[in-house]
Amino acid sequence: MSLPVCEEILLREEAGVLHLTLNRPQVRNAMNLKLVNEVMATFDAIADRSDIRAVVLRGADANFCAGGDIKDMSRAREAASQNDGEDPFFVLNRAFGRMITKANYAPQVVITLLEGAVLGGGFGLACISDIAIADINAQFGLPETSLGLPPAQIAPFVVNRVGLTQARRLVLTGARFKGEEAKALGVVHFTTDSPEAMDELLAQQLKQIKRCAPLANRVTKELILSVGQVEHETLLDKAAQQFSTAVQGDEGREGTQAFVEKRAASWAQ
C-alpha cells in the first residue's frame, strides 16, 4: 500500500525506515484534526509492510509537539453551537486517542526524537514509543488541567508508561520537567545534548533494530502488548505457537544457520 499524500506531516522512506515529521512549526507542531487523520492514515498504510522496519517520529524546527491545537478546539466549539447531531468535541478528542492507539500497536519499532515542546498529545506519543530519545532541554508536561481540561485520551498511556503513582502527580499538577527527569521517570530511554548526538544515537538504534528479524520483531511486539490484556495461560499458549511457527519458518532457519556459520543474518546485511 502506498503512503498517503499529506499536508500537515512530512514522510520520507529511507533504507527500511519511515521518517514521519509533524510539520506545523508555526504552532510548535500542535495537532489539529487534519494532522491526526494523516498520521492515522500513514500507520494504516504501513501496517502490512514488513519492509519498513522502524518509524521515526519527530517535529519540525526543533519542537516535537505542543499538544492539541487550541484553535481547532475553538472551531469545534463553534460547530457545537450550530450542530444538533454528533458532538464535535467528542469527535476531535476521540480521534487523538485512536491516533495514539494506532501508533502504539504499529508492528514496526516506533522511535520518538523529542526536542523542544513535548506537551499534551506530544507527551502521549512519547509514552507509546518503543524507543524514546530526548534532548536534555526538551520541555515535557501535561498542561491540560491548567486549561480546565482533563488529559482524557492521554492519561491511560501515561499510567502505562510511568505507573499510577507518578501519573497522579504529573496529570494533577500539570508538572513541567526536562529530559533528565523524563528519563528518571521512564518516559524516555536516552537523553542527548545536541542535535548531532541525537542523530548519532538514532543511527545506533536503527542499526540494532536491523539486526533483528522483521517478522520476529512484529510477533514479539504483539506479544509484549498483549501482557495484561489476554489471560495468562492463553497468552503463553499463543506465544508457544508463535515460537513453533518461527522456528520452522524462513527467519528461524536463516537465523540459526547464520549463527552456526558465524555470519550476519540476511536481514542484517
Automatic annotation (TrEMBL):
Species per Swiss-Prot/TrEMBL record: Spongiibacter pelagi
An MF annotation (GO) of this entry: catalytic activity
Domain of life: Bacteria
Annotated GO biological process: isoprenoid catabolic process
Coiled-coil intervals, chain numbering: none
The protein's name: Enoyl-CoA hydratase/isomerase family protein
Gene3D superfamilies (alphabetical): 2-enoyl-CoA Hydratase, Chain A, domain 1, Lyase 2-enoyl-coa Hydratase, Chain A, domain 2
Family the UniProt entry places it in: Belongs to the enoyl-CoA hydratase/isomerase family.
